Amino acid sequence: MKKVIVAKEIFMKSEKECFDRENNIDNNGFTLVELIAAMAIFVIILSITVSFLSFGAKSYTKTRDEADLQMDSQIIMNQIEDLAVEAYWIDFAEVSTNVKALLLYKSDYVDMIFWDRNLEKLYLVDEQEITDTDSLTSISYTDEKNLMAERVTKFNVPTSSEALKKESKIQIEISFASGKQVYPAVLNIHLRNKVKEP
Q: TM segments (predicted)?
C-alpha cells in the first residue's frame, strides 16, 4: 500500500506542477497598461522631434531666402554700378504710372534700365539712341532677354540733377522681396566722367 500512496503522491505532485505551469502568470511580458503608457511616451517624443524638425526647416528656408535676396541685390547693384560709372549723365524718368526708367547717357548711346512696378522686374535695354524722354514709351523692354532682376519691389533714384552736377554722384535705392522677406539696398555711385547734360 505504501507503493500506491507514493505513486499517488508522485502523480498528484506532477499533476500539480502541470497545473501550475499552465496557469502560472509569466512576469516576462508587458501588460496592456504598460504598452499604452509606452505608446503615449513615444507619441510625445515623436511630436517634439517633429516640431524641432519643422522649426529647423522653416528657419533654413527663411535664411536661404534672405541670402538669395542679398545675393540677387548685390549682383544687380554691381551690374548697375558697372553701367553707371562710365556715364556722363544720369536721368530718372517716369515712363508711366507703373514704369520708371534709369537713363545712363554714354558718349554715343544710352543704356536704359526699366522698372515695371506691376511685374516687379528690372529690364536692361542697352546701347540705344534716344533724343528725349518722351520717346521712352515706344521702347519695348519686356523681352525676357532684357530681364535683369525679378522680385524688385522698389527702384528709386532720389538724387536731383543739381546734386548730380555738384557732386558727380548718384544714389539708387532698390528693394527685393520674397514672400514676407524684404531686402532693401542703397547704392552710391561716383561717376568717372565729367558730368554734362545731354
A: 35-55
CA–CA separation, 154 and 147 (whole Å): 16
Contact 181, 194 (CB under 8 A): no
Task: Identify the sign of the CA torsion 19, 20, 21, 25.
Answer: positive
Residue type, 97: T
**pTM of this prediction?**
0.69
Q: CA nearest 171: which of 149, 156, 153, 184?
A: 156
Q: Do 154 and 174 touch, CB atoms closer than 8 A?
A: yes
> Domain limits of the chain?
61-190
Per-residue cell: 63: 535664411
pLDDT tens profile 93-151: 888 889 999 988 888 888 999 999 999 999 998 887 766 655 666 777 878 888 998 89
158 φ/ψ angles, rounded to the nearest 5 degrees: -80, -5
